[in-house]
């Protein structure tokens, strides 16, 4: 049994994790804004085509796939780091 402390995540891994949280969080908030806006009648008479609504409608369309890609990148980076640490600890 070894008493080694686990390696802290790199700065890039932390940045990616915060990016995932931010992009997915903003996309989910935009999704709920569209639901609430529809419930209160903001979409009547092409209301979603004016003002900030086109951006709010597009955010989940691009943000959720981007968040998924960022999660995959983060998982690959973490796996590579752990494999490298396991190789170093074996030697």
TrEMBL record:
This is Multidrug ABC transporter ATPase. Keywords: Membrane, Transmembrane, Transmembrane helix. It comes from Cryobacterium cryoconiti. The chain crosses the membrane at residues 15-40, 52-77. The keyword Membrane applies.
């Amino acid at each position: 049994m070894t008493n080694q402390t686990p390696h802290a995540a790199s700065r890039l891994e932390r940045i990616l994790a915060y990016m995932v949280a931010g992009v997915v969080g903003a996309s989910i908030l935009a999704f709920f804004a569209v639901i609430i806006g529809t419930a209160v009648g903001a979409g009547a008479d092409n209301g979603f085509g004016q003002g900030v609504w086109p951006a709010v409608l597009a955010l989940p369309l691009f943000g959720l796939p981007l968040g998924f890609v960022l999660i995959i990148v983060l998982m690959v980076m973490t796996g590579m780091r752990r494999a490298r640490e396991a190789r170093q600890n074996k030697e």
